[in-house]
Specification:
This is DUF1616 domain-containing protein. Keywords: Membrane, Transmembrane, Transmembrane helix. The chain crosses the membrane at residues 29-48, 57-77, 83-103. The protein is mostly helical and 120 residues long. It is 78% helix and 0% strand. The chain has one domain (2-108). It is built from five helices and no strands. The N and C termini lie far apart (38 Å).
């Protein structure tokens, strides 16, 4: 399983790179699409780690679609649409969600429920 996760991160990183430098390659479209789907999904899955696995998968896929659509809609409404800008905005939002989820993590990897039980 870690091999697949590493491969997914590598493909997403290549998609981000190809999209930002606007390299004319036949691999650009599928790799950028993979990045645009998996980056927000992985970030929200990190934030929803207390959910059951199937529920977390469904919720993170729905959140990824919502993030992509909201970025596109906002950029179109503001007349600021660009491919690079959209990719950068999705990357920034995904990074922000992932960082907020990691900052909220309790010390020593304990779930927050266990810390509340010990405190009472």
């Amino acid at each position: 399983m870690p091999v697949f996760a590493g491969a997914a991160v590598a493909v997403g990183a290549v998609g981000l790179f190809l999209g930002l430098i606007d390299l004319d390659s036949p691999l650009r479209a599928p790799f950028v699409l993979f990045f645009l789907i998996t980056a927000p999904a992985a970030a929200t899955a990190t934030a929803l780690r207390r959910m059951e696995p199937w529920g977390r998968a469904v919720a993170s896929c729905a959140a990824a679609a919502a993030i992509d659509l909201l970025v596109a809609q906002t950029m179109l409404a503001l007349h600021m649409w660009s491919i690079r800008g959209g990719i950068a905005a999705v990357a920034a939002i995904s990074l922000l969600i992932a960082l907020l989820a990691l900052v909220r993590r309790p010390p020593h990897g304990r779930p927050a429920q266990d810390l509340r039980r010990r405190a009472s």
